Amino acid sequence: MGDLKQTSLITAQERLRDQVAHALRAALIAGELRPGQVYSAPGLAAEYGVSATPVREAMLDLAREGLVEPVRNKGFRITEVSERDLDQYTELRAMIEVPTIGRVTQIASKEALEALRPVAEEIVTSARNHDLIGYLEADRRFHLGLLALAGNERLVETVGDLRKRSRLYGLTGLDEAGLLVASAEEHHELLDLMLAGDAPAAEECMRRHLGHVRSLWAQGRDEPVEPRTKRKLGGSRTA
Predict the structure, then answer these.
(1) Torsion angle (degrees, nearest 10) of CA 169, 172, 176, 177
(2) Are residues 66 and 99 in the same domain?
(3) Which structural domain, as residue segments, surrounds residue 47?
(4) What sign for the dihedral angle of Cα 171, 174, 176, 182?
(5) Cα-based distances in Å from 219 to 77, 169, 222
């Protein structure tokens, strides 16, 4: 019985850490946690109404993703990404993803491509439902899923790392303006071109999509951010 209780306790702690990490990612995307700023685990814990331990553990998870970096005796600094960084990440992604999409168009089966259709629809649905976390997660699965069809695991890992380093945040204003829906729908267009076997058009669509995403990122940086308010797990906020 003692082992069962201990297992249940560990599971509950892991679940709370995951909930906090999810909430922190949402705050990052919404621009409520600002790049360059240092946040302490106790301070964030007070905002979320939890102890400092799950917040510290969640922050370490985010540090492994490159979203934050530990600051000794102070807390965690939100990783800054410059315009030059973004341009270079986008250039690298284009160099890798555009020709790979052309190759996948030529070698992938229609069944393998159609299997990603529900994910493309999930991206659109998330954008329409203002679910930014869901949007980015589905977008990640779609793009890495397409690249995986090329059969190069290291290529997928590399692009996955570039995506983490060039994460989107400050998307709230763009979401409210409906601009994310247009970007989301480009995933269906890309699949249609690939299923038609038109590699050049698919490559051009991918190149345009990456440029569109880069533009959205830049616009998102300029969106005004509401003052931070006390948050609860699950994304709700109180005054």
Answers:
(1) -40
(2) no
(3) 2-80
(4) negative
(5) 23, 10, 5
Structure tokens at 3: 């082992």
Residue 157 sits in the same domain as residue 53 = no
Q: Is the overall model pTM greater than 0.85, yes or no?
A: no
218 and 119 assigned to the same domain = yes
The token duo for 238 is 């109180």
């996955």: which residue's tokens?
160
Contact 152, 45 (CB under 8 A): no
Q: Which residues, including other chains, have CB under 8 Å from residue 228's CB and lie 6 or more apart?
A: 32, 47
Which tens digits make up the pLDDT trace of 121-176?
Answer: 999 999 999 888 888 889 999 999 999 999 999 999 999 888 877 765 556 666 77
- Asked if residue 120 belongs to a domain, the reply is yes
Are residues 6 and 118 both part of a single domain? no
3-state class of 204 per DSSP?
Answer: helix
Rounded Cα distance, 191 and 32, in Å = 34
Is the domain of 58 the same as that of 136? no
CA dihedral defined by 33, 36, 37, 42, rounded to 10 degrees?
80
In a domain, 213, yes or no: yes
Give the whole-angstrom CA distance, residue 126 versus residue 68: 25
